[in-house]
Amino acid sequence: MKKILLITSLTALFSMAAFAQDATGLKTDKAPPPPHKMEEGYRGMEDARSMTIQQAKTMHDGASVSLKGYLVKKTGEDLYQFRDKTGQIDVYIPMAIFDGKNVSPDELVGISGSLDAKQKPVRIKVSHFQKQ
């Protein structure tokens, strides 16, 4: 009796796996396309809608911004001056955001963060930093 129950259980277990392959959902038999071949989808700061400093300064307090430009100089503990072709703005970048990366003023960088329009002058609190 125990043998029959064991054989029946094993048969049911293996047949469920066979039926599960025909089910709908994510099929893992093919690899996804590489990121540069994708048409849509979020892939990080490269896809974030980049704007200029001039556009960012007109946005409301707390707005999400993404900029490409240059860190020109350090003006305080975690404060830096950021510049692009339309102007400059102060940015607050905690040391942890740099993640051990060194940047010189002639290297293009991308930053994302939130606009602090209550601060005078307007400032960006950076949450993501990337060397280009």
UniProtKB/TrEMBL annotation:
Q: Which residues form a coiled coil?
A: none
Looking up Pfam families in the UniProt record yields: BOF
Statement: the UniProt record of this protein carries the keyword Signal: yes
Region described as Disordered: spans on this chain: 25-44
Q: Which residues form the signal peptide?
A: 1-20
User: What InterPro entries does the record point to?
Assistant: BOBF_sf (IPR036700), CarO-like (IPR005220), YgiW/YdeI (IPR016052)
Task: Report keywords, A-Z.
Answer: Signal
Gene3D superfamilies (UniProt xref) = Bacterial OB-fold
Q: Which NCBIfam families match?
A: PRK10053.1, stress_OB_fold, YgiW/YdeI family stress tolerance OB fold protein
Please identify the protein, giving its name as recorded: YdeI family stress tolerance OB fold protein
Source organism per entry reads Phytobacter ursingii
